[in-house]
Write a structure and sequence with these properties.
This protein is α/β, with parallel strands linked by helices and 373 residues long. It contains twelve helices and nine strands. The strands form three sheets. The protein has a five-stranded parallel β-sheet. α9 runs parallel beside α12. The chain binds adenosine-3'-5'-diphosphate.
Length: 373
């Protein structure tokens, strides 16, 4: 009571009010206060401040969602396939953990395209595809899917082009490419050396007469596909005037291994060229692959247990989780070879024997080839 007048409190707590309810503003009729633009009003009630914070939160979340959506649209694989840097392990059935087998366009985070540190240089028809195919199962190896022909046909396109043909790989993985033409094309060793003098080279060899036949069958297959007439093996490998071996026939030339190897040895020491036994890759692939793993300084992952002999194909294939579907090479690998006319075979053995001797002396090692005297 002030001066007989009952002082009206600015706010009277009603019995139903919750105890911590804030009092209403003292001057409900005061005109609204305008703060300068860009400055939050200090007179805002607390409830409105909460609303503003909530609104800002919604705006920020919306902006993040929009940004992520845009990024995914522009780089669809960048965010989807991020894999943890797990310890490498071979997983023969399908995906090998740190690989996108058959999906070279997919990209894990922490990967980039790298120039190869290892090349399968040949020899054509000696098992180069099988070698690459099996090695690609190793978690520390990434392989280019097709033959790039950089050092023979596409050299003018430059190193950036070459790098773009490579698969995405982790820093600790070996990038590998195979182009069997590299072994026989004269200018290739020098070009490889100029790009990387410590390049590791894989060369797979098989009995030169079997390789010649395999090469001939491949050439004839291509002719059939192009509706061109076929020519008999004997007619091509023998000079039709002298009845001696026709050295200018490409399938013969490619089988004179020592000549091509000598060219490579002008630029690379033998220790940098690992020779794979083509016959043993067919008979015991895990043995040859273990030697390649050692040569490349990789851990031994590929074992006998990863292979199963496919009786229909007559070759070892990779074992898969589904026992009915082995992971085999395509049907154009492993054609059956016709028998060679005895006279031509004798000529071929006489022709290749001195070259084989020279080769074995050069490499300090013998291969157990069936056509060998
Ligand atoms: P053939 O078709 O003459 O039997 P490349 O891949 O260099 O063209 O070599 C083809 C050769 O790879 C085939 O020659 C075949 O002998 C050999 N090869 C080795 N291992 C193989 C496998 N597991 N499956 C199929 N072919 C294989």
């Amino acid at each position: 009571m002030v001066g007989g007048v009952m002082a009206t409190p600015k706010y009277q707590r009603l019995p139903q009010d919750p105890p911590d309810l804030h009092p209403l503003p003292s001057t409900p009729h005061t005109p609204p206060h305008h703060s300068p633009p860009g400055q939050l009003s200090s007179h805002c009630p607390k409830l409105s401040r909460y609303k503003m914070v909530a609104a800002m939160f919604v705006v920020v979340v919306t902006m993040v969602v929009v940004a992520v959506t845009c990024l995914q649209w522009r780089h669809p694989y960048l965010l989807q396939h991020s894999a943890p840097l797990s310890p490498p392990s071979l997983r023969p059935e399908g995906d090998t953990g740190r690989k996108c087998n058959g999906m070279a366009h997919l990209r894990y985070s922490h990967t980039k395209r790298q120039l190869p540190q290892c090349l399968i240089i040949g020899a054509r028809k000696a098992g180069t595809r099988a070698l690459l195919y099996f090695l690609n199962r190793h978690s520390q190896i990434q392989t280019a899917g097709r033959e790039i022909h950089f050092f023979d046909k596409n050299f003018h396109l430059g190193l950036d082009w070459y790098r773009r043909q490579m698969p995405f790989s982790f820093k600790d993985q070996v990038t590998m490419e195979k182009t069997p033409a590299y072994f026989v094309e004269a200018e290739v060793p020098k070009r490889v050396h100029s790009m990387n003098h410590s390049m590791k080279l894989l060369l797979i060899l098989r009995d030169p007469i079997d390789r010649t036949m395999s090469d001939y069958l491949q050439i004839m297959d291509n002719k059939v596909k192009r509706h061109k007439p076929q020519v008999a093996f004997e007619k091509l490998v023998l000079d039709q005037e002298t009845y001696e071996i026709n050295r200018s026939y490409s399938a013969i030339r490619r089988s004179i291994y020592v000549r091509h190897l000598q060219r490579w040895l002008e630029f690379f020491p033998l220790s940098q060229i690992h020779l794979v036994d083509g016959e043993n890759l067919v008979a015991h692939p895990w043995q040859e692959l273990a030697k390649v793993e050692s040569f490349l300084g990789l851990e031994h992952q590929i074992t006998r247990d990863h292979f199963t002999f496919n009786t229909t194909r007559g070759f070892y294939c990779f074992r898969t989780a589904d026992v009915d579907i082995d992971s085999c090479l395509s049907k154009d690998k492993g054609r059956s070879h016709p028998s060679i006319d005895p006279y031509v075979l004798k000529k071929l053995i006489e022709f290749f024997t001195p070259f084989n001797h020279k080769l074995f002396n050069l490499i300090g090692r013998r291969f157990h080839w069936q056509h060998w005297t």
